[in-house]
Amino acid sequence: MIWHKETSIPKIDLLVLPGGFSYGDYLRCGAIAAKSPIMKAVKTFYSNGGFIIGICNGFQILTESEILPGALIPNSTQKFICKDQDLIVTNNKTLFTSGFKNKATISIPIAHHDGNYFLTDTELQELEQSERIIFKYENNPNGSIGDIAGVCSENKRVIGMMPHPERAIDKDLGSVSGLTIFKSIIAGF
Amino acid sequence: MTLDKRVFKFKVEVVLKNGVLDPQGEAIKQSINFNNLGNVLEVKQGKLFELTVSSKDIKHAFQEVNEICSDLLANSVIEDFKYYEVSE
User: Which of these CATH numbers, 3.30.1280.10, 3.40.50.11600, 3.30.460.80, 3.40.50.1220, describes B2-86?
Assistant: First the structure.
């Protein structure tokens, strides 16, 4: 565990930016956390080819840090949504998604108020063409452009996703789709 | 050195760019029109910041405020900003 006030990252294989509501989502979701002391080290870790997964608020922090493109704005419904979502795996060639069949439908819950992914139309085309969209919602819950639920960096080593894979790792909790992401990561190393 | 500094006040306005969905503005617009307060075609809800800045002179204060806006107060992917000096 690395505290946000730290300024360096030890030798690690994968960095996880978890969900939460850093700084109460003041100003914009993820905006103030993106200026935390640790984020300079996170940017260096990314520049050096490090693997990063940002989940929910972690995804928002990655866009605010400009490590991932776009921005996350309030849901079009203006409501906090907490429920299982069917997702389509649109790129299974990343470290994080290699355990899924391409175009597979999986179920992972979302829990957010600001999960409405925004990009310009040009950027959307660029992401589509470069296979940087990794998950799409089957039934768009929040207004995200292109039904996007998760994207990756140009080098495919950083992913950001609004759904919570860590909440879908046990049959008794409803789904094990999230477990496949963590198993894919381990299998890839 | 602080003795050499002066205090300036600014207002910063941040609004969503055209084309970015603004569900809050839309809900406000519907309420205005539903209550016959007027016939409003569009509402955009933004943010207003009042900054009190200690700086060497007005030129530096403007530079600092510009950096504060582009670096933190506005996200250039979704928002535009403008700022102006205000008197006390």
Answer: 3.30.1280.10
